[in-house]
Design brief:
The chain has 183 residues and is α+β, with helices and mostly antiparallel strands. Helices cover 26% and strands 26% of the residues. Strands 1-2-3-4-5-7-6 form a 7-stranded mixed β-sheet, with helices on both faces. The structure holds coenzyme A.
Length: 183
């Protein structure tokens, strides 16, 4: 999930930090293009193909969430459910429009996915670039809110990538409590 230089895209304007009701929902196929344009515009993430986002929004929507205000995309999580660990939500990419950062929205997006199927998810995992403090703090905050253990370790060293890509640390949060379970 490490940064690429932001590129120009015509379809996603950065929303102004005005008041307004923010809604969260699973995406549909037509949102794939909007997420792709957001990744290119907002910066901070590897830009994958438009097809990859379309596929995620269409076929893996249960592990994804979009935040919108007045119909404008404000943030998203593209997640995966690893086939060998179905109780894990793997957060593949998460981003919030620059004007909407620092308000806790990314954590709400992850919680939105977990809340759809609380009996299923016991762990949240993500790859975080070693210098991405906002992202690391996002996942530390998630662990705190859920009162769950938090671990981070290098997972994919820089040498496994083409030149210029940082290592990826794996953060792992959990086990999350089951509903009604007490500490
Ligand atoms: C990472 C990101 C999704 C966080 O979204 P957000 O809605 O702003 O997250 P939050 O408001 O919950 O902030 C998360 C934490 O990071 C902290 N934070 C925010 N911006 C920060 C910054 N520039 N540097 C350090 N910490 C920062 C917040 O204070 C908060 O910490 P706290 O809970 O201990 O107070 C957002 O910054 C973003 O879109 N970044 C670009 C894409 C990216 O890097 N995605 C993650 C890839 S691994």
């Amino acid at each position: 999930m490490v940064a690429n230089e932001p590129q120009q895209a015509a379809h996603v304007a950065a929303p102004a930090p005005a008041d307004g009701h923010v809604t969260l929902r699973p995406p549909c196929a037509q949102d794939g293009r909007r997420v792709y344009d957001a990744v290119r515009t907002w910066g901070g993430l590897d830009v994958n193909s438009a097809y990859a986002y379309l596929l995620a929004c269409d076929r893996f929507a249960a592990q994804c969430s979009l935040a919108e205000r007045d119909g404008e995309l404000l943030g998203f999580v593209v997640g995966l459910a690893p086939s060998d660990t179905p109780h894990t939500l793997f957060v593949w990419q998460v981003a919030v429009a620059p004007a909407g950062r620092g308000l806790g929205l990314a954590g709400r997006l992850v919680d939105d996915i977990l809340a759809r199927d609380p009996a299923r998810y016991r762990f949240v995992e993500a790859h975080v670039g070693p210098t991405n403090q906002a992202s690391m703090r996002l996942f530390e905050g998630l662990a705190r809110r859920h009162d769950a253990p938090f671990e981070a370790r290098e997972d994919y060293p820089a040498a496994w990538f083409p030149n210029g890509h940082d290592a990826e640390c794996l953060v792992r949060i959990g086990p999350l409590r089951e509903q009604g379970e007490t500490p």
